[in-house]
Amino acid sequence: MDKGAPIGVFDSGVGGLTVLDEIQRLLPHESLLYVADCGHIPYGEKSPAFILERSRTVAEFFRKRGAKAFVIACNTATVAAVADLRQDYPDWPLVGMEPAVKPAAAATRSGVVGVLATTGTLQSAKFAALLDRFATDVRVITQPCPGLVELIETGDLVSPALRTMLQGYVEPLLNAGCDTIILGCTHYPFLKPLLEQMLPPSIILIDTGAAVARQLKRLLGERDLIGTDKPEHAQFWTSGDVDHLRNILPTLWKYPGVVSSFGS
Ligand code: DGL
């Protein structure tokens, strides 16, 4: 591995771009590769075995391109695959992500924290362990959000249909007294502007994109692998419709990027 090698970033779709943005900001001299597994989205309702198999396929794809690190920019794929991938590639810097329960427990004043995430994440043993570890002194209200990821994947961040769906998901959290809401799926930070319009200003929204970028920087730094060249542009692959990703990318990613097909 050398400093000039790329970093591979992966999500079921465009959600991981919220993490890629944090990586780009913190590590501007890296060459970034991104795979959106849009042909198999949503992961939130898929079996862990299926998600592990997809994650392994993407990991191998990045290995073949000489990636010096692998970021699973997806909470759902992290619970399903990170442990196995760490075993598969013990020497490869690998960063996963999980809902920000610890910072939310520290931030809440009302003592009630809400978690918006996929069904897969909320049902996982890893999430239960996270609550056991960091949420013993607070009440946690979980809210799965089926359908939300699919709307975001169309590039819709503002429509009345999206607003209505989102309202239905945040209302139970507000009614339960949550003053802090964890965005536990990497797609949801795209909805922050809309959420900020819909929610009382006192509500704190927490996501983990910036923390993931910091962890990546730390792992690369320890290995003297932080890039120093100005990269040409990020490269994107999708297992879904290439033209669709090309069309919506400019609204979700403000830097140059080239989109190719990942195959099925
Ligand atoms: N973006 C993913 C996450 O962070 C999941 C979206 C999906 O359901 O595919 O959990």
SSE blueprint:
Elements: E1 7-11, H1 17-26, E2 32-36, H2 48-64, E3 69-72, H3 75-88, E4 94-95, H4 101-107, E5 112-117, H5 119-123, H6 125-134, E6 139-144, H7 148-153, H8 160-175, E7 180-183, H9 192-198, E8 204-206, H10 209-222, E9 234-238, H11 242-252, E10 257-261
Parallel strand pairs: 1-2, 1-3, 2-9, 3-4, 5-6, 5-7, 7-8, 9-10
The structure holds D-glutamic acid.
D-glutamic acid (DGL) binds next to helix 3.
Q: Kindly report the CATH topology of the largest domain.
A: Rossmann fold
**Ligand inventory:** D-glutamic acid
Please tally the β strands and state the result. Answer: 10
The class by helix and strand makeup works out as: alpha/beta
Q: What fraction strand?
A: 15-25%
The number of domains is 2
- CATH classification class of the largest domain: Alpha Beta
Q: Please identify, by name, the CATH architecture of the largest domain.
A: 3-Layer(aba) Sandwich
Q: Taking all residues together, what is the mean pLDDT?
A: 96
Strand order of the largest sheet: 4-3-1-2-9-10
| Count of runs of 4 or more consecutive helical residues | 11
Helix content: 40-55%
Spatial extent as radius of gyration: 18 Å
Order of helices and strands: EHEHEHEHEHHEHHEHEHEHE
CA(first)-CA(last) distance: 28 Å
Shape: globular
Protein name: Glutamate racemase
Enzyme class: isomerase
Pathway: Cell wall biogenesis; peptidoglycan biosynthesis
GO biological process, one term: regulation of cell shape
